[in-house]
Amino acid sequence: MRNLSKDLFLNTMTCPTLGWELRNDDISGHGSQFPRTLGEKFRVEQGIDIGNRARSLFPTGLLIEEKDMARAAAATRQAMEDPRILTIFEAAFFVDSTAARADILIRDGTGWSLIEVKSSANDRGNYIDDMAYTAMALTQAGLVITSASLLLISKEFRLGMDNRDLFVEVDHTDEVLLHAEALRQLWPNIIDETSGPEKPRPVLKFECKKCSLFSECTGKEIKNHIFQIPRLSPKKFLELTASGIVSIEDVPASFPLTERQTMMWESVQAQSPMVRDELESELERIAWPAHYLDFESVMTAIPLYPNTPPYHQVPTQYSSHCCDNVGHVMAHAEYLCDHTKDSRFDLAKRLIEDLPGNGSIIVYSNFEKTIINALAVAFPSLAPSLESLVDRIVDLQDIIIKNFYHPDFGGSVSLKSTLPALVPDMSYSSLAIGEGETAMVTFAYLAMGRYDNESADAERRNLLEYCKQDTLAMVKLHERLDEYVRGVG
Ligand code: SF4
Q: Do the Cβ atoms of 302 and 49 come closer than 8 Å?
């Protein structure tokens, strides 16, 4: 369940403005609890499923179902007063301006054990802050916390196992209690800072770079923000902002930049593409006929198939355009796994057949290499053939990163940024599936049997079209780069 005060705390440790947004714009603005994309919807569903499975480990636990915090807090108090109730789920606490819900509270003598459930297989630093906030709220409500731990997803879990095997408990009592006490002392200041009627004046910090409000807040109406400079270090960021510089246009020529940063700076200053001489020799390394290859994959907390661990990246499909020269397509091959079973072996076999010869295998990012290497580990009988595919890989994105920049890239070299800049007449807007996360969730839903037969057929066609568009986009992108090399771009 979303906890506004906790969000406020976790986000306002670096930004009072963000805290103000959360308090005052909760429904329509950032931090809305309503998922906006298929990927967000899927993550919410996964979280709910993991939460329910965690509760199943405590069959006598009582769930506080009330959504309203005041009523939920009253129901929690009532449950705590009943000594027969040993475990409470979603226990609510609402004291002064502090509101919190504890995933699982277990009666422990005169105190309570706090357990927070996370649908992650990895312990993360911010989980301590998260639990510290809840522990502080519980302490303010008069509870004695005897232990604080996380329930994380076990990497040993496999489909068909009991829910008891799904979780590992990690004790964080000492850190949580220490952080909770530090937070208790800071809390009045945080509340003062964020609860006024006026929105605090935003101050640009390095943390803004990853903030989802950036373009509406400190980045608003700033074209070519210095955050677009590749690998801008916090030190250089501070040097620039100390001089009042937030736009790449205002960065002086004397400012020390790396080679790649300089290429970008020159491109933005000149408002024209920058092409390094090495682009030509890099592209000449490509051996023909070449295959432009793209994979899609799926990754879920609860594995979709036996013998795969949680959050394992399972390749689900590929597309390959084969060209005998730049921009000249000879053939297209594609494969989409049977979603009802683990089809990785069949996919790997077909992949080897579909990428014959010694020509280059052109990819966009390191992802395809990672997938093929993982297939080689999973299927040793295919490993020699798969490893020889890896040897043929040429990464077009890496070539762009080192040798080319267009002012319309806006600091990103993802295919979704470079394609509109270089091939504006090609877009994903007419496709039913237009980005990777939707493709991932669509396949997961297929595997989970969420579509009827007719819809499943339609979604499978959509998946094939999306992946095909990705490899065709790479063909077109390469063609444009070649035009720049030849001076006709
Ligand atoms: S952009 Fe920066 S100042 Fe604005 S809300 Fe985000 S972190 Fe806060």
A: yes
SS3 98: strand
Mean pLDDT of the chain: 92
pTM for this prediction: 0.90
Task: Report whether the peptide linkage leading into residue 230 is cis, meaning its omega lies within 30 degrees of zero.
Answer: no
Q: Ligand 1: which atom is nearest the Cα of residue 21?
A: 5
For the CA of 214, the closest atom of ligand 1 is 1
Q: Do the domain assignments include residue 369?
A: yes
Counting ligand 1 atoms within 8 A of each CB, the residue from 214, 237, 246 with the most, and so the one to mutate, is 214
Which of 6-20, 64-78, 139-153, 460-474 has the least mean pLDDT? 6-20
Lowest mean pLDDT among 4-8, 96-100, 340-344, 436-440: 4-8
Please tell me whether residues 169 and 286 are part of one structural domain: no
* CA nearest ligand 1 atom 4, residue: 217
Tell me, yes or no, whether 148 lies in a domain. yes
Give the integer Cα–Cα distance in Å for 480 and 473. Answer: 11
**Residue 60 pLDDT more than 60?**
yes
Query: Pocket residues for ligand 1 (CB within 6 Å)?
Result: 15, 17-18, 202, 207-208, 211, 213-214, 217-218
CA 204–ligand 1 middle distance (angstroms) = 7
Atom of ligand 1 nearest to the CA of 30: 5
**Does residue 412 share a domain with residue 307?**
yes
- Residue 173 and residue 25 share a domain: yes
Ligand 1 centre to CA of 217 (Å) is 6
Same structural domain, 185 and 291: no
Tens-place pLDDT, residues 79-130:
999 999 999 999 999 887 788 999 999 999 989 999 999 999 999 878 999 9
Q: Are residue 322 and residue 449 in the same domain, yes or no?
A: yes
Output the CA 127–ligand 1 centroid distance in Å: 21
Are residue 368 and residue 473 in the same domain, yes or no? Answer: yes
Distance in Å, CA 150 to ligand 1 centroid: 29
- For residue 194, CA distances in Å to 14, 22, 360 come to 12, 9, 56
Closest Cα to atom 1, ligand 1: which residue?
214
Q: How far apart are the C-alpha atoms of 284 and 402, rounded to whole Å? A: 15
- Residue 262 included in any domain: no
Which residues form the domain of 389?
279-485
Q: The dihedral of CA 84, 87, 91, 96: what is its sign?
A: positive
> Looking at this protein, which amino acid is placed at residue 289?
P
Question: Whose alpha carbon is nearest atom 5 of ligand 1?
Answer: 18
Cα 214 to averaged position of ligand 1 atoms, centre (Å): 6
The domain boundary residue, chosen from 194, 229, 249: 194
Q: Identify the domain boundary among 147, 164, 194.
A: 194
Residues 305, 187 share a domain? no
Q: Is residue 20 pLDDT above 70, yes or no?
A: no
Outline where 199-333 has alpha helix (H): 234-242, 259-270, 278-284
Confidence of residue 284 (pLDDT cuts 50, 70, 90): very high
- For residue 89, what are the β-bridge partners? 63, 104
Please give the tally of structural domains in the chain: 2
Q: Is residue 269 in some structural domain?
A: no
The tens digit of pLDDT for each residue in 169-221 reads 999 999 999 999 999 998 888 888 777 788 778 899 999 999 989 999 999 99
